[in-house]
Amino acid sequence: DLPQTAALVATLLAVSRPTTRRWALGGVLLGVAILVKETALPVLILPVALVGSVPVSRVARLAAVFVGAAALTAAWWWLVVWASTGLVFPLNALSVIEARDVDAAIRIDRSTWLSVAAVVGGWILVASRARDDTPARLLLVAAIGLAPAALYAASLGLNARNFAALAVLSAIAVGAGGAW
Fold first, then answer.
1. Which of 173, 163, 124, 157 is CA-nearest to residue 12?
2. How many CB atoms lie within 10 A of CB 53?
3. How many CB atoms lie within 10 A of CB 104?
4. How far, in Å, CA of 121 to CA of 92, rounded?
5. What angle do CA 70, 76, 82 make, to 5 degrees?
6. Which residue in 51, 65, 85, 151 is deepest, having the highest Cβ count within 10 Å?
7. Backbone phi, then psi, for 77, in 5-degree steps?
């Protein structure tokens, strides 16, 4: 979970400027994150964050470079999994995840509410800046991409480590909100 988180943060740093080289690097980094843990796969929607701030033709080119680089980095694994299990990745991992016997994911008590309030406030500030600020939009779209896996893990009561990437992005949102 922590290597995936590091790769996702590195991805966001790489794509912070809309250049072909940086988005290719971001795609490779996202591909590494996908190889580490398949829950990073929905972050492929990241190019959506450029809509409205970059011409559509450039968004399409950067999206193709980003997705292509991620696919070149990680797609070989789909073939390995399919050849060895007969299942399409990441469907092969769902039964393994559900069978794990782990501690409860999150316990919320009175002392947690201050942190929850700070995180919610941070995301509200990021969302309010996202209209005119591309890095804020990138952060928000990445979090949206990670949210389904976090909700799935929470619904199964899986260990809190499954929320590491979203927790780090939330800490970044709180820090950015405080800086603004």
1. 173
2. 14
3. 9
4. 37
5. 125
6. 65
7. -65, -35
